[in-house]
Write a structure and sequence with these properties.
- The protein is of the alpha+beta class.
- The chain is 50% helix and 19% strand.
- It is built from six helices and five strands, in the order E-H-H-E-E-H-E-E-H-H-H.
- The chain has a five-stranded antiparallel beta sheet, with helices on one face.
Length: 207
């Protein structure tokens, strides 16, 4: 799976946060990283809120997702022009501290960087990938891929006969296989419910 860097421009307004969280959820699903969605959404909320606190509501900003090795990197960038000259209130200091504690708790690491015309805050979120473009899902996905390979081999050999299982044992094996296959489906960015619906339809039609 190729996970190309992705970027979205937006205005840093409180009402935009919910939409950004939804977009991130959908994008991570396409990337097969649904397990990272909740942490990613929390981090997006905090990074955008930091821009609003520092540069003010309505500041043009951008959100980007990319892979940093096998970690998911989230970055929020803004022009960095509207520094507030007044001293922050104690309430704002408390909010900043809580935000930093959140990033410390959920991100592998986080930090800030700046250039001539921008400031950015980023964080890296851990995944279970073995390479930037591999599939997640752990042992279930590995088992499912092995079973898919065996199934393809059986079909290509016109169904070579294998020793029969007892009905009870076979049922347990089938259930485990279905669970592994659903894990494989989600790891590849598809919706498990859609796949189950399609399978049920084909089964009902005898296809």
């Amino acid at each position: 799976m190729v996970r190309e860097p992705w970027e979205l421009s937006f205005l840093a307004e409180p009402r935009e946060v919910a939409g950004l969280r939804r977009v991130v959820r959908l994008h991570l699903k396409m990337w097969g990283l649904s397990q990272q969605t909740e942490v990613a959404q929390l981090c997006v909320s905090e990074l955008v809120t930091r821009v609003i606190r520092r540069a003010g509501a309505g500041t043009p900003a951008s959100l980007s997702l990319s892979m940093n090795g096998i970690s998911l990197r989230i970055e929020v960038r803004d022009p960095g022009e509207c520094e507030t000259p007044t001293r922050a209130s104690s309430h704002e200091d408390d909010e900043t501290m809580m935000g930093e504690l959140l990033l410390d708790s959920y991100a592998e690491r986080w930090g800030a960087r700046e250039g001539p015309d921008f400031k950015a805050t980023w964080c890296d979120i851990a995944t279970d990938l073995t390479s930037p473009h591999s599939h997640g899902g752990g042992i279930r996905v590995t088992r499912a891929e092995a079973m898919i390979s065996l199934y393809e081999a059986a079909v290509s050999s016109h169904g070579a006969r294998t020793p029969r299982l007892t009905p009870a044992t076979a049922a347990r094996v089938v259930i485990k296989l279905i669970v592994d296959l659903l894990a494989w489906v989600e790891a590849h960015g598809y919706d498990a419910d859609d796949v189950l619906d399609a399978a049920q339809t084909r089964f009902d039609l005898g296809l």
